[in-house]
Amino acid sequence: MHISFIGQRPAGNNTTLNVTKIGDILTINGEAFDFSPLQEGETIPLGEIPCVWIVSPVERTGGNIHVTLVVPISADPTPEMFDIPALDGALNGVIAIPRDPKLEG
Q1: pTM for the whole thing?
Q2: Most distant CA pair in the chain: distance in Å?
Q3: Which of 27, 72, 81, 90 could form a disulfide with 20 if both were Cys (CB 3.0 to 4.6 A apart)?
Q4: Is 104 inside any structural domain?
Q5: Count of the separate structural domains present in the chain
Q6: CA-to-CA distance for 38 and 57, rounded, in angstroms?
């Protein structure tokens, strides 16, 4: 799975993002999204997945699921929040997502 990240100011108090990956299933803040039925070359258009954290079409290319997730940032984020490396690989488990310290506390 290839997961890209983009920093974006959250709407309201929605500042917590927790993601777990098991195979082709992403669990985002406790809600599971199973992309295993997606066949090679198929795309789920943006907006068809009921999740505010997914901000791209989801597609399978080269055998991998490709998706972009929003990472909550403050009004004045650190430069590192704009340069979050993509996650590319088959590892399963909790995904370490950078946290903007200005949103903590």
Answers
A1: 0.88
A2: 43
A3: 27
A4: no
A5: 1
A6: 12
- pLDDT tens-digit profile of 45-97? 999 999 999 999 999 999 999 999 999 888 888 877 877 888 887 789 999 88
What's the CA gap between 90 and 57, in Å, rounded? 20
CA nearest 72: which of 93, 88, 94, 55? 55
Domain presence at residue 93: yes
Q: What are the structure tokens assigned to 61, written together?
A: 């290319």
Read off the tokens for 70.
């929003």
Two structure tokens written together for 63: 């055998």
- Decide: 26 and 32 in contact? Cβ < 8 Å: yes
86 falls within a domain: yes
For residue 84, the cross-strand partners are none
Compute how many other C-beta atoms are within 10 angstroms of the C-beta atom of residue 103.
Answer: 16
pLDDT tens figures, 23-51: 999 999 999 999 999 999 999 999 999 99
